[in-house]
């Protein structure tokens, strides 16, 4: 007669992980004197839980805490609990991750800390309620590992730890493995990773250029006149634009034409730029104030010449009362001795700096 033996219930569950994205699965990153080259993201573990693996692990932990937790004071040597651990390395505390650990002993002793008692109205009194420390020491071959809590004497049962019950744990593992794709039981094949295909983007139907856009293109084309060499193709594109073009293409062409006109005007302006005179000569520049700055050092005026002095820009630092009254846009005359030939703030505009300068209204 033979007796059938029931298969062992699975008590080991695996969760989906992937290589650490920071260290590439090596466990090492940049060096520092305290932690060496250990990666801070995976803490040297080389792998991290994926999104669905983390979801399954979180739900599994919730079930373990809810169904297996018992007061720490009821634990006995040899019990296996799911807990974190801590120890001291000199002055520095060291924390160890949560896993199944075997209990070596449970100690209940005075904690040396306490709280003030409260009266019936909730006000603090002078009476001190001294706390009691519950310390669980774990078996370890690599030094002492423990976890402890300090609580009031009547609340010691609030410190709980999940104690291993293989039948209950097997039920939890089977339930989580059936429900979540990020978990599977020992001996089973891990679930295939889902490959998501990107959804096609919805694009609005192209609209044709409006009559206003076409009219603006023709107007800008006329303002452009004879374009620079780098804008010759742009003029051909603008001339070929018709009612079959899209509104987007017309808008882009309008922006390019506007930039080309600005570049053309800047080129023409620089072509007529000149200095007011040689260094050491006396010079007078009549024109419009295009820049004004003031401070404790006085007033800086920059004048753009007009008429026969078109293309000349002169600047001077002044302290007279009239200089403080002049504002940008006014027409004045700067007179002084040419001190320097400079380039403006854009690095290309020619400016003549005058010293011993005076200002009069033009």
Question: Can you tag this structure with a few keywords?
Answer:
362 residues, alpha+beta, 4-stranded antiparallel β-sheet, 17 strands, 23% helix, elongated, disordered N terminus
Question: Which helices and strands, and how do they pair?
Answer:
Elements lengths: L12 E3 L1 E3 L8 E5 L3 E3 L8 E3 L1 H18 E3 L8 E10 L2 E27 L5 E15 L6 E7 L8 E3 L3 H14 L3 E3 L25 H14 L7 H9 L6 H25 L10 E14 L2 E8 L7 E6 L2 H5 L5 E13 L6 E12 L1
Parallel strand pairs: 15-17
Antiparallel strand pairs: 1-12, 2-5, 3-4, 6-11, 7-8, 8-9, 9-10, 13-14, 13-16, 14-15, 16-17
Helix pairs in contact: 1-2, 3-5
Characterization of this structure:
The chain folds into 4 domains: 8-69 and 165-190, no CATH class; 76-162, no CATH class; 211-271, no CATH class; 282-361, OB fold (Dihydrolipoamide Acetyltransferase, E2P) (Beta Barrel). The protein is 23% helix and 38% strand. It has 6 helices and 17 strands. The chain has helices at 51-68, 166-179, 211-224, 232-240, 247-271, 321-325; strands spanning 13-15, 17-19, 28-32, 36-38, 47-49, 69-71, 80-89, 92-118, 124-138, 145-151, 160-162, 183-185, 282-295, 298-305, 313-318, 331-343, 350-361. The strands form 6 sheets. It has a 5-stranded mixed beta barrel with strand order 13-14-15-17-16. Strands 7-8-9-10 form a 4-stranded antiparallel beta sheet, with no helix packed on it. Strands 1-12 form a two-stranded antiparallel sheet. Helix 3 packs parallel to helix 5 (247-271).
Briefly say what this structure is.
The protein has helices at 51-68, 166-179, 211-224, 232-240, 247-271, 321-325; strands at residues 13-15, 17-19, 28-32, 36-38, 47-49, 69-71, 80-89, 92-118, 124-138, 145-151, 160-162, 183-185, 282-295, 298-305, 313-318, 331-343, 350-361.
